[in-house]
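FW: tagging you since you asked about this chain on Friday. Here's the raw sequence from the shared folder, copied in full. Didn't touch anything.
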Amino acid sequence: MDEPPQAPEIPPEVEEWLWAERIAEAQQWGPLSDIRWSAEECLDAGDAATARWLAIEDRRLELLTEWTHAAEQIARWEAVQMRLLAQALDDALVDARGDADMAVRSAAAELATAVGLSDRTVQRRMSDASTMRDSFPATLEGLTHGRFSRAHAQTVMEEGTRLDEAGRAAYEQIVLDLAPQLTTGRLRVAARAIAERLQPTALVERHAQARDERRVVVRDGDDGMAELWALLPAVLAHGIHDRVTRLAHVIRAGAARESPSDGDLASDPDDRTIDQLRADILCDLALTGHATGAESERGGPTGSNAVRAVVQITVPVLTLIGAHGDGAGAGTGDIGGATLNGRCPVTPADARRLAGGATMWDRVLTDPISGDVSAVDRRLPTEAQRRHLRARDEHCRFPGCRISVGRSDIDHTIDHQYGGATAVDNLAHLCRRHHSLKHHSAWTVTQKTPGVLVWTSPLGRTYTDRPPPALRFMPGGAGLRGAALFQGP
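HL: got it, structure written out here
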């Protein structure tokens, strides 16, 4: 190999191989691998330490190459999936027979249950895939060649959807040059700015239309928590955030002024963060109209005492009487305690307060030994039957659906008009979407075992949906034993 030109002195804080690579690139030599020794050459020269270091670097370079190759392959397969979903939407619309929406729902359910996804998610992805294929062809083509990820493609589509056809073409041409170089977060900012410049209508007109989409949504989380999400006009959203922030600082400053001096009786300090204060104040403002920022039982906002809602809380009777205290189920091996709408766990203290103080709660007490709700027995279910079904089902009984029973209908598995009994072994909760799907598409369902629904898709595949285990409400070791029995084959 020819000797490289004389290199400048290497700074001690810079890796020798990195410095050599920069010099080689600047002087149009080949890559580093052409001018540095290999690990084998170092070993031959007796430099074992350098050989080990070079071997590690070689492995890191190989891993990086394989990583980027895998990312490109994933992007290509994501593009394949998009084209399949778009085609599935086309086929459903061709086969609609007068009811396009139901045909699309049925097709989405067929695809979703085959891979264990929510049919709502699949239907949304079908719509996105069709939009991508028809309105953003260059973006889909870039994904097909692995130039960027599906998240990048989704960002490009979401920010450019409001543009007209001519605007989208110009938008894609600009944004797709940036996509491979930016993270999705930075790409979204850039794409939004570019789309704004290309908008054919004024912001005032578009904002008036966007205001119609404002809404508030609750998303259940873990450990008794939930997200309260709102889509609001930007001015109002920032105004709300600014107000709760200012109030949080006022409360924190007041707490600092009221700190006991030496010799005074010490009280528990208010050590909440600004984020925690914002959350507590927001609850106070929404539920009481007053921003006290005070705490209830060290951590709960006082606004929780103002809750008056129509929701279902399922509470083991021993939780209501306080037999387990406030620590039941917390690392003790218990299967569970009180749940809100059958999905979100609540603390025993909250369960007792809500069940005892709010007249609009539907209280369902589960037996602490057997976990059963009493069996009940006309065309419209009795209130006792409704309680039984709410406790058994907890949510819509279509595979994968988590819509709560409070937002679902009670359906006769075998229609009442065809002789189906109004009995708990012929009743189940279905949300409006899947209730309609059962009656107006080729999907069918049977309930040969009480509470166990077997769904058959239009293509003949079967999916079994079992009710959530009531035995999880058992206390102590009995709960673990019951769960083991339930989870059998």
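FW: The first helix runs from residue 16 to 26.
HL: agreed, and The mean pLDDT is 75.
FW: great, closing this out.
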